[in-house]
Amino acid sequence: MFTRGIEVKTPGQLKKMRQAGLVVARTLTALREHVVAGVTTGELDAIARELLAEAGATSSFLGYGARWGTPFPAVTCISTNDEIVHGIPGERVLADGDLVSVDFGAILDGWHGDAARTFTVGQVSPEHAELSRVTEEAMWAGIGAARLGGRIGDIGAAIEASIVAAGSYGIVREYTGHGIGSQMHMEPDVPNWGRKGRGAKIVEGMALAIEPMATLGTEDTVELDDEWTVVTADESWASHWENTITVTRQGLWVLTLEDGGEAELTARGLPFGPL
Fold it and tell me: Within a domain: residue 92?
């Protein structure tokens, strides 16, 4: 069902999304062990393809964009160092000290799950480790701001406030979070900045991908000639964290974490509300 252009899922449909989300969560957990120096980003993508097949799922990313341009050629987006999002896996060899953002989406029984994690390779600098921590914390601030009857702007305002409070970081504005369900990208957009009380109302059955992207420099971006990879204009490093969530009458449910987000939500004093 759609309400003002936003897809509202039934409890049964959200449970199907949870199954897709579990494929995403388990694949990202498995990939973490392989993000080491000497591995290529293409090898990581091959592992993700195998895990998708084993789960009986298909990719949200592979072939995406074919209707209007160059189709995405992989099942993961792997963005390293100054790459923000949409990096194409290939021959790049990971090195000690790299910061690697892996974005992954799966379709199961027609429903999507989408999440991203920033991984570190070996010993990273304190500055780069802190960038990832700040971005992850901003994601949780955004998740924690979602509540029934609230507004999408509440999420963006919380993300922005979290990053600004942490120090001098760029908040990427050109790329946002989004609604998700029977398609990967749906209404509403979920910006990583904003004003409380603005935007679409959050209602039962809405599913959102919340995904802050922060940089050590400015927010300005450049798309490379491959028509996908987005890098920072000033070559500063970037981090990207994302989870798919829904808000129930009981609380928050993170569809792309194996425990549904229970540990993080409980630690933050937030209500955990699985269906």
Answer: yes
